[in-house]
Write a structure and sequence with these properties.
single chain; 12-stranded antiparallel beta sheet; 3 helices; 15 strands; globular; AIM24 family protein; Trp_RNA-bd_attenuator-like_dom; AIM24
């Protein structure tokens, strides 16, 4: 049997590293240590594994989960072998935390080391709005895998106020506290149901990662 699909570039990447890029679209994680992953992000695994629902982690997280169903989308992965993560052909990246912290739009999350501290965070009182306004803040020592629906752009928020569509924001500096800007003029031009009538407002020393898309979830609803 012959086909370009069997070329070496498409074979599994053999590595002793825990976090390995299988390709620009797929992440390979080796086990031992446990990891937490977004439900639906696992596309394949080899070995013996247990995938268990992960609770909200605290009373405050439980209350936020009850309102938004965020935090109920994590699973704990334990076992021996390797697990492959991807999300709708999005570009995949890893971020190594070295005692610092980052906030991630849950729609962009793939997986992270269970050794990292995590909590669900909200943006003001905007939890009932669509577009990922409940997010995951990670801190400590470990690695997180994220997905961007297209090549990402990094914006420096320290120079001037920065406004981002909620569904286009992938992650940002945890020290930034974004607000919500409701642009009624823009909403009236585009349509009252459009997410563009709301933007996340960032300003301060830090960055925000923006994808060139409103996200896979938004596209699926069209």
């Amino acid at each position: 049997m012959r086909s370009p699909i069997f070329d070496q570039v498409n074979q599994e990447k053999q590595s002793s590293a825990r976090w390995t890029m299988q390709s620009s679209k797929m992440l390979r994680v080796g086990f031992g240590p446990e990891a937490l992953a977004a439900k639906g992000a696992m596309v394949a695994y080899q070995g013996q594994f247990d995938f268990a629902h992960e609770g909200s982690g605290s009373v405050s997280n439980f209350l936020k989960k009850a309102v938004t169903n965020e935090g109920g989308q994590l699973m704990r992965v334990r076992g021996q072998g390797e697990v492959f993560f991807a999300k709708a052909n999005s570009d995949v990246f890893t971020i190594d935390l070295e005692g610092d912290a980052i906030t991630i739009n849950t729609a962009s999350l793939l997986a992270f080391d269970a050794s990292l501290d995590w909590k669900i965070t909200s943006i003001g009182n905007a939890g009932m709005l669509a577009g990922g306004l409940f997010n995951l803040t990670l801190s400590g020592q470990g690695t997180v895998g994220i997905a961007s629906d297209g090549p990402p752009m990094i914006l420096d928020c320290s120079v001037q106020p920065t406004f981002v569509d909620p569904q286009a924001a992938v992650c940002w500096s945890a020290n930034l506290t974004p607000g919500v800007k409701n642009d009624f003029k823009m909403g009236s031009l585009i349509g009252r149901g459009s997410g563009e009538s709301f933007q996340l407002a960032f300003h301060g020393p830090g960055f925000v990662v923006v994808q060139p898309s409103e996200g896979v979830a938004a596209a699926a609803t069209r």
